[in-house]
Amino acid sequence: MIIVITGPTGVGKTKLSIQLAKIYNGEIINADSMQVYKGLDVGTAKITEAEKEGVTHHLIDIRTPDEEYNLFAFQQDCRLKIKEIKARQKIPIIVGGTGLYIKAALYDYALSSEKDKDDEFNDLSNEEIYKQIIAYDKDISIDKNNRRRLVRCLNKIKKETLITKTEPKLIYDDVVFIGLTTDTENLYKIIDKRVDKMLPNLIDEVKKLHKEYPNSRALNTAIGYKELIGFLEDKQSFKDSINLIKKNSRNYAKRQYTFLNNQLDLQWFLVDYNNFDKTIKEIVNYIETR
How far apart are CA 2 and CA 36, in angstroms? Predict the structure, then answer.
């Protein structure tokens, strides 16, 4: 059996994963695309050592912020960890909100590394690559003269299109897909409160990381980091940066719901935050009786 726990940002995935890992003798595989980076702790709500409660975690802190990590790398890494965990007679529990990562790992997609695919663009000019990119996303903002970024962006788009537009098959026999949800108003309150709570420590974290890795793609794309970098570089006010973090977090949650609803066969559970044990019991009962 493989257990997948997913849902929008802030909904309670981490708390549930620890409890299920204890019940099913499991090990957790991170499926959050930003928690793979060392140092991006506060803004990604990365689990602490104390919160792990002795449960083994994988694919957290495996890259520095200036190193590349992508869909292909996760697909390979996650499948290897599943194999290793099963060999130890334990249950792999995949936890995170990056639905694209989860789907790439569990279904029969034949991805390749970006380096392997760069050659297919050799005969295209920067302008031609750019036209292909905006054909997928007319609102995208990218430097037309930065060929490396253009190629990387088009590679990413093609991989995402492959995964969202085709009908794949699961490569594992027994996968339990669990989705956690709450009503929209409550989720937005959770997100706003979490941003306010993490803010003092997040500012210090962003300052440190931006100084050490000024050109990090991860820092300049991760919610909570890119907005504060804008403030540190005097591009916007502190208040505007905080409001933007909250807005972008809410919009990200919407996109997560859209992808997860359309792309994964999830059994959704409404989280009872006043009695989380009740939610856990409901999920365990579903796993046991499905």
Answer: 21
- pLDDT tens per residue across span 28-42: 999 999 999 999 999
Q: Measuring CA to CA, how many Å separate 222 from each of 186, 201, 242?
A: 23, 16, 14
| Residue 12 vs residue 165, higher pLDDT | 12
Centroid of chain to Cα 164: 16
Tell me the CA end-to-end span of the chain in Å, nearest whole number. 12
**Residues whose CB falls within 8 Å of the CB of residue 210, separated by 6 or more in sequence, listed in order:** 216, 219, 225, 229, 232
pLDDT in tens, 75-85: 999 999 999 99
Sorted by sequence, the CB contacts under 8 Å of residue 177 that are 6+ apart come out as: 4, 6, 264, 265, 266, 267
H-run or E-run covering 197: helix 184-212
How many C-beta atoms surround the C-beta of residue 171 within 10 A? 13
Lookup: tokens for 129? 């690559």
CA dist 85 and 66 (Å) reads 29
Please tell me whether residue 276 adopts helix, strand or coil conformation. helix
List, edge to edge, every strand of the sheet that includes 2-6.
57-58, 26-30, 91-95, 2-6, 175-181, 267-270
Structure tokens at 150: 């253009």
High-pLDDT (> 90) share of the chain, %? 69
> 6 pLDDT band (50/70/90 cuts)?
very high
Is the confidence at residue 72, as pLDDT, over 70?
A: yes
pTM of the model: 0.82
- H or E stretch including 284? helix 276-289
**Residues 36/30, Cβ–Cβ less than 8 Å:** yes
